[in-house]
UniProtKB/TrEMBL annotation:
The keyword Secreted does not apply. One of its GO terms (molecular function) is beta-glucosidase activity. It comes from Haptolina brevifila. Pfam families: Fn3-like. Residues 30-102 form the Fibronectin type III-like domain. The keyword Hydrolase applies. Belongs to the glycosyl hydrolase 3 family. This is beta-glucosidase. Keywords: Hydrolase. Gene3D superfamilies: Immunoglobulins. Its EC number is 3.2.1.21.
Length: 115
């Protein structure tokens, strides 16, 4: 995986794109996983969250650009500080991490989310 780009489309919606290639001699499948590190820890939540993923199968020597859409609902978290517990997206700078697993999410980009 290479060439990570993250585009904020407004309201917390993101397009996360990455190039993926199969350098082998047989068809192969890879899972592209998108993680987020939240801008501020105002509320207790995991340090890093899995937002979305895509399973990509490529023929030998093939490559392609994969774009994964992240919705505001996926970026949001449950705010338990109110009686009704609403979901919200916190404005700020988010770190997006992409890779085949949470341990190997070595592609990193930051994006500023303003609502």
């Amino acid at each position: 995986m290479a060439s990570l780009t993250v585009i904020h489309k407004g309201g917390g919606a993101l397009d996360v794109s990455v190039d993926i290639a199969n350098s082998g001699r047989v068809s192969g499948t890879e899972v592209v996983q998108v993680y987020v590190v939240d801008p501020v820890m105002l509320y207790v939540r995991p340090w890093k969250r899995l937002l979305a993923f895509a399973r990509v199968t490529l023929e030998p020597s093939a490559s392609r650009r994969v774009t994964i859409a992240v919705t505001p609902a996926e970026l949001a978290f449950q705010d338990d500080s109110s009686a009704v517990g609403v979901s919200r997206v916190v404005p700020g700078e988010y770190t997006i991490r992409v890779g085949p697993s949470s341990v190997t999410d070595t592609l990193v980009a930051t994006v500023r989310v303003a609502l």
